[in-house]
Amino acid sequence: MKQCVACGMPMKSPEDFAMGDLEKEYCRYCCRPDGTMQSYDEKLNSLTKFIVKTQGLDEKAANSAAKSMMAKLPAWKAE
Amino acid sequence: MTKDTIANIMSIESMSYKSLKEVNLMSETKRQIQKKITRKHLVEIAIKQFGENGIITTRTADIAKAAKVSHGTVFAHFSTQEELLISVIEEFGNRITQRIHELVNINSTLFEVLDAHITGLIEFEPFYTRLIIERRLLPESVSNTYIIIQSTISFHISIAAEKEIEQGTIKEIPIHLIYNTWIGLIHYYITNSDLFSPNGYVLKKYRNELLQHYMNLIKK
Asked: Which residues pair with B82 in a beta bridge?
């Protein structure tokens, strides 16, 4: 099973892939409306917002966790 | 010495050199495989020891003893105690998030997500209990891994809850409170498991009661 290179989500069905495209290495949550992959800053920002929205954490704590999560993913290893 | 003899000797020498190199390569690979096996074994033993005896109180010497290796072997794989701890937490995080992803998908109902969450936690209950009790005393990277584990479940809860709020089957409650009310409930039982279930796994014992109660709270 493929894993999104940008957020680590396992991509099980076609709808999980960016634009439903099975050739893509990233998921529907990591692409821009035009289908291209989000940049590091865009992803860090959206991931932080996601943690705040779903867990209610302080933004600084959420940002630190998002950075550490991204550091382990293939798309951002060089950042 | 004839030309032929010299050629023969040279070819024998090059052959033995080649096979010597192959033997070296083989033992190198063997050593690497063995190293990986020992490392995996140490992480496995550490997860068990941390779960049984606590993360802070377990010493590297205890892990070495339980793994039946010398104390030095632990440090040949992890240069510091903190490095071992971080590797263990990361491995734990990978396993539990992988398991939750296996149990649910983006079409699961909220009840199915919560049920899967409990199933996943039961499989890792001893270590998870220590992690949530001791987290604030551990290095910052541990907290980050903890939030990442929680994000997997908060992601699935948010997708299912948003859908069901829209359908009108559950109350309009902010997503983080839907999540935190659930986590608050199960963490209360987990952190006090010695009082709720001194002889075994607390989540196994209270799973149905907690799930039903929580669903009744948020149902419209």
From this structure: none
In chain A, residues 18-37 whose CB comes closer than 8 Å to chain B: none
B179 touches chain A (CB under 8 A): yes
By DSSP bridging, strand A10-11 and strand A2-3 are antiparallel
Digit-coded pLDDT (tens) for A27-56: 999 999 999 999 999 999 999 999 999 999
Tell me which residue has tokens 């039982």: B189
DSSP 8-state symbol, A16:
G
Burial class for B195, CB neighbours closer than 10 Å (0-12, 13-18, 19+):
exposed
**3-class SS of residue B56:** coil
Neighbouring C-beta atoms of residue B220, cutoff 10 Å: 10
Reported ipTM: 0.89
Sign of CA dihedral B119, A9, B160, B177: positive
> Tokens 């943690």 sit at which residue?
A51
| DSSP state, residue A13 | S
Task: Please report which helix (H) or strand (E) contains residue A3, including its range.
Answer: strand A2-3
Nearest 5°: the CA angle A36, A38, A42 is 155
Select from A15, A54, A61 the Cβ nearest to the Cβ of B154.
A54
Specify whether the CB–CB gap between B87 and B43 falls below 8 A.
yes
Comparing CA positions, the residue from B121, B109, B102, B92 lying closest to residue B190 is B121
pTM value is 0.84
